[in-house]
Amino acid sequence: WVVGGGAGGAGHPPPPPPPLRPGRIALRSDPKEGFLLLGIVLLSPTKAYVVSGEKGRDMPVLLETKFKGEVVWAGETGADSGIASTQVAALTLGFHGVSGERHQGENRASCVRMRNLYPEGTTIRNVRQLSILSEEELALIAADMGLQRVDPAALGANLVLRGIPDFTYVSPSSRLQGPDGVTLTVDMENRPCIFPGREIDKDHAGFGPKFKPAARGRRGITAWVERPGQLKRGDSLQLFVPDQRAWAP
Question: Is the pTM of this model over 0.85?
Answer without folding.
Answer: no
